[in-house]
Design goal:
The chain has 3 domains: 4-112, Translation, Eukaryotic Peptide Chain Release Factor Subunit 1, Chain A, CATH 3.30.960; 119-234, Nucleotidyltransferase, domain 5 (2-Layer Sandwich); 265-378, 60s Ribosomal Protein L30, Chain: A. The chain has 11 helices and 16 strands. It has helices at 30-48, 52-63, 109-112, 161-193, 204-213, 216-220, 236-267, 272-275, 288-296, 329-334, 345-356, and strands at residues 16-22, 73-79, 82-89, 97-101, 119-125, 128-135, 138-146, 197-201, 222-225, 284-286, 300-305, 315-318, 325-326, 341-344, 359-362, 374-378. A 5-stranded mixed beta sheet has the order 7-6-5-8-9, sandwiched between helices. The longest helix has 33 residues, at 161-193. The model is unreliable at 152-156 and 269-280 (pLDDT under 50).
């Protein structure tokens, strides 16, 4: 999960109203349920100490939501009588949650937003391709690629032997040119939209021809499926399932690779047990003190977060700057924070990670991760 979209939350001072609500309703009493939810949100914010103007801004934003056609959930962040971000969620929260705190409570986003890789889907045949961008809940058509089609003049059936080789060669050359055109456009679109995954759909011969013409970095990110294509009667639902499976596989491999780097890096400080020489910290950090030190010095390449971990809700001390975070109040004052304020560790670390452009990965339940639920793969070791 990239956190760049959260930067507007850190360019202004709090306190912040942070709201997580379920929004998708399909029952006849959906409008009544929506009204009850809005009152519950307002009550929670008022009880937490939110000002009336910010509560009203949140209520107005929720009232503007259509009863039907909404995503599973929404996250709203408001301060100073203004809703700064309204984010659709890929999964509905288990319960309505509305908090009022110095930092926006962004930690639940990592589990609820449902971020997958940015996926470029190319449905290919001999005449061209249809391109589409899939990015979490967003689907954006990227247009079509029209290829070169050659048909011999006067040939409405198989040509006679005298012209057969010439005819087949022209057709093959036209298809090879089309495959190159498709590959060039796929590569261009992948670069422009930052695609992490490319899915080629269609018959094996056509998609393989495109695959082999892709530049190496794009080909390395590509997978194939026989489902889909441009033929009439192609199942859109079947292609959706293939895209979802490819994205799920990609995400799982990414977290597995990150955890492997974390385990290897975490093991390096222990080398002194065998050699008698302490080699210092490795390329991983585990636990609140170590991760706090790493984010403050912008060492974190990937922040690992297990939402159910005991350390996620642990208090740390912060200041107004994104790097103003310390485990103890005295440490915060020592780094120049005049009036340290307590905050949740996960929210404070995510703020720092967003500012530094670090990647954030959620460790799925049941998968071994950092002790306490907080860890990091570092950009360099010290």
């Amino acid at each position: 999960m990239e956190l760049g979209f959260l930067k507007p939350l850190f360019s202004r001072q709090g306190p912040w109203a942070s709201v997580y609500v379920e929004t998708r309703r399909s029952t006849e009493d959906a409008q009544q349920i929506q009204a009850l939810r809005e009152r519950a949100v307002a009550a929670q914010l008022i009880d937490a100490g939110a000002d009336a103007y910010t509560v009203r801004a949140v209520a107005n934003q929720l009232m503007a939501e259509p009863v039907r056609g909404a995503p599973p959930g929404r996250a709203l962040f408001a301060a100073g009588a203004e809703v700064v971000l309204d984010i659709p969620l890929g999964r509905a929260p288990a319960a309505t949650e509305a908090t009022w705190s110095f930092l926006p409570h962004i930690a639940p986003l990592t589990d609820l937003r449902g971020d997958g890789p940015v996926c470029l889907v190319a449905s290919v045949d001999r005449t061209g391709a249809d391109l589409e961008l899939r990015d979490g809940l967003r689907r954006e058509p990227l247009g079509q690629v029209q290829g070169t089609e050659w048909q011999g003049r006067g040939h409405r059936s198989m040509p006679d032997d005298r012209h057969e080789w010439h005819y087949r060669n022209k057709v093959e050359n036209a298809w090879n040119e089309t495959a190159g055109t498709i590959a060039a456009e796929v590569a261009r679109q992948a670069r422009e939209c930052g695609a992490e995954l490319v899915l080629l759909a269609g018959d094996q011969r056509e998609r393989r021809a495109v695959l082999h013409r892709l530049p190496d970095p794009v080909r390395a990110a590509a997978v194939e499926t026989a489902v889909g294509g441009r033929s009439p009667g192609t199942s859109a639902e079947a292609l959706d399932r293939e895209v979802a499976l490819a994205c799920e596989t990609f995400s799982r491999k990414r977290i597995e690779n990150a955890l492997e780097r974390f385990r290897i890096g975490r093991g390096r400080p222990g080398e002194h047990r065998e050699t008698g020489v302490d080699t210092g910290p490795g390329e991983a950090a585990e636990g609140v003190p170590a991760v706090v030190d790493a984010v403050r010095t912008h060492q974190v390449a990937t922040l690992l977060l297990a939402p159910e971990g005991a350390d996620a809700g642990r208090s740390v001390w912060i200041g107004p700057g994104v790097d103003d975070v310390a485990v103890q109040r005295g440490q915060a004052k020592a780094i120049g924070v005049d009036k340290p304020i307590p905050a949740r560790a996960d929210d404070a670390l995510l703020r720092s990670a967003a500012a530094a452009g670090s990647e954030v990965l959620v460790v799925p339940a049941g998968m071994p991760g950092p002790a306490g639920g907080l860890g990091a793969v570092l950009r360099w070791s010290t």
